[in-house]
Write a structure and sequence with these properties.
This protein is of the alpha+beta class. The chain contains 8 helices and 24 strands. The structure holds zinc ion (2 copies). The site of one zinc ion (ZN) has 6 residues, from strand 16.
């Protein structure tokens, strides 16, 4: 009987050790990274073990425990700590999400639950086989064929059977969809979100409540604008009141949509995301369904102005990576981060799904900006509230920050290309210059703190007109 018990224990051991890697097949790992203490300049190789609010504990490859204040880590080190903290949070939520699943019995094909079922079935069959063998040998005095094969063979068969079940579940969890991993909702860490906005403060200000991360800005970026536009509607950038109750709102507790809303047939009104410099990002298609970038509507930074003279991007503001590094360059209005052309850990971007993003391991879903359509978001991965007064394709997400036009909307100026855009030096006005053929035109404009605007238009024939609003 001792032998049987031993075999039973081996079977349980094999199963439990295999079980330890469920869900970890594609989880990013921080093992074997070079960590640097920027004060002492000391570098060592090791893996992330644990982090408190201010300190990270690293297990070095020679098995020693190293303790470093997070503030003294290099940028990439800080990035790993943030990533690992988020991973741990989402792992915990993963468990919670599974619990919720069981509670409302809404998802039948959860593969992690499937592999757990396999495991228990195999364990039960192992016990059954051993009990039958024992009865045969001790009571009926006949040794069954499978016992002649030996315990080792039996263990190998059980191991192989479980391995097959495990492979099956990991193959489907690699797709990383909500139904496969069991993850349905996430909690964004507002402090970690906030760090993405740091390079753009104080022009951008941030705050948060229990539901939303709020981004306030005047809608004017610190980079130049308008130069390079060849399809121009005669709109120019002016400040916007994206502040107070009209600040941009990013959900702190996003959840996956059952069927992500495609930006090809939806959301051609209003923004779909906000860049970390406080500039909204609109659908890659304009409100006529055309690829804004491809038809020359955008400047060298992927932006232009709407009917309210509101500057916004339609392409991915990848230029922000120069200041943002590996941090997100934007947040989508469904609550998921948008990274540039690298993964958060600095490695090359891996393949994207139809929404234009992916979930790596158990980490929250994120999008990526690219240089080709759909540039930013292909479909909204997260659940949305839509403005009930709008209809597809010109529907829009709520909450949304709104603009207030100060003058009637402009019309296309055929053949014009914008050649220069300069500040008037007092931060309250600009000079925009354009060419039609070899002839030059310009708009000079400024505003007062009370919101009074004066415009001087000089057309390509030299005619000058002024207008105040
Ligand atoms: Zn636009
Ligand atoms: Zn990614």
């Amino acid at each position: 009987m001792a032998k049987y018990l031993m075999l039973l224990l081996i079977t349980v051991f094999i199963h439990s050790s295999v079980f330890a890697h469920i869900g970890g097949h594609n989880a990013a790992s921080s093992s074997d990274k070079i960590w640097e203490n920027t004060r002492t300049k000391e570098k060592f190789r090791g893996s992330f073990l644990y982090a408190t609010e201010k300190t990270v504990f690293i297990e070095t490859i020679d098995g020693k425990l190293q303790e470093i204040p997070i503030s003294l880590l290099s940028e990439s080190g800080k990035q790993i700590v943030t990533f690992e903290k988020q991973r741990i949070t989402s792992l915990n939520q993963h468990k919670f999400a599974q619990f919720k699943y069981k509670a409302n019995n809404s998802e039948a094909n959860n593969t992690n639950q499937q592999s757990l079922t396999y495991l228990y079935l195999l364990l039960l069959s192992g016990i059954l086989v051993l009990s039958i063998s024992w009865i045969y040998k001790r009571i009926i005095h006949v040794q069954p064929l499978f016992l002649k094969m030996g315990y080792g063979t039996l263990a190998i068969i059980l191991f192989w059977a479980y391995g097959t079940a495990c492979k099956k579940s990991s193959a489907s969890s690699n797709t990383g969809t909500a139904s496969n991993t069991g993850i349905t909702s996430f909690t964004n860490n507002p402090l970690s979100m906030d760090s993405a906005f740091n390079p753009y403060k104080p022009a951008v200000t941030t705050s948060w409540n229990s539901n939303y991360f709020l981004i306030a800005s005047n809608g004017l970026p610190s980079h130049n604008m308008m130069v390079g536009i060849t399809a121009w509607q005669q709109q120019v950038p002016i400040p916007q009141a994206y502040t107070g109750t009209n600040a941009w709102s990013i959900p702190l507790n996003p959840s996956y949509a059952t069927s992500p809303l495609s930006t090809k047939t939806n959301l051609m009104k209003g923004a779909v995301a906000v860049a970390v410099n406080g500039i909204p990002i609109f659908n890659a298609l304009n409100n006529r369904g055309e690829d804004s970038y491809a038809i020359g509507e955008l400047d060298q930074w992927g932006g232009h102005c709407g009917k309210a003279d509101d500057y916004h991007y339609h392409a991915a503001p990848l230029h922000l990576q120069a200041s943002s590094g590996l941090k997100p360059i934007a947040y989508a209005l469904d609550g998921f981060a948008i990274y540039g052309n690298k993964e958060p850990d600095g490695t090359s971007m891996t393949s994207l799904d139809t929404c234009h993003g992916h979930a790596i391991g158990n980490a929250a879903y994120h999008y990526h900006g690219t240089t080709n359509y759909p540039y930013v978001v292909g479909a909204m991965k997260g659940k949305l509230s839509l403005d009930p007064s709008t209809t597809a394709p010109e529907n829009q997400i709520l909450p949304q920050a709104f603009t207030k036009p100060i003058r009637p909307a402009g019309t296309p100026l055929s053949g014009a290309s914008i050649t220069a855009f300069t500040s008037n030096g007092t931060n309250n006005g600009y000079l925009l210059e354009y060419m039609i053929g070899t002839k030059k035109g310009a708009i000079q404009y400024s505003w007062t703190s009370a919101g009074k605007y004066s415009f001087t238009f000089t057309d390509v024939n030299g005619n000058v007109s002024t207008q105040t609003y």
